[in-house]
Design a protein that fits this description.
Elements: E1 2-3, E2 13-17, H1 24-33, E3 41-46, H2 51-62, E4 65-71, E5 76-81
Parallel strand pairs: 1-4, 2-3
Antiparallel strand pairs: 3-5, 4-5
Helix pairs in contact: 1-2
């Protein structure tokens, strides 16, 4: 996983979890990732401070690739490539 600054594939879908707290961002990310094809990228926006560690851990255990985590004014922006 890389921090912001690198160029990544354009997300096919964006999930806005701003205002949602643990465990909602992970639950919704898990649901939305199933709506994209393997290899495609899902963008997740979240402002829960726990979302960074939660989504990083979930992606690793679920077999998806966390391409980047970017700190934004609102919280975090995650780019996740769906695994097989």
């Amino acid at each position: 996983m890389q921090e912001s600054g690198e160029i990544f594939p354009r997300p096919i879908r964006t999930l806005d979890c701003i205002g949602l707290y643990c465990p909602e961002p992970v639950f919704r990310t898990r649901e939305d990732i199933s709506e994209v094809l393997p290899g495609q990228v899902l963008e997740v926006l979240a402002d829960d401070p726990a979302s960074r560690s939660d989504i990083e851990s979930w992606a690793k255990h679920a077999g998806h690739e966390l391409l980047s985590v970017e700190k934004t004014a609102e919280g975090y922006r995650f780019l996740i490539r769906r695994g097989a």
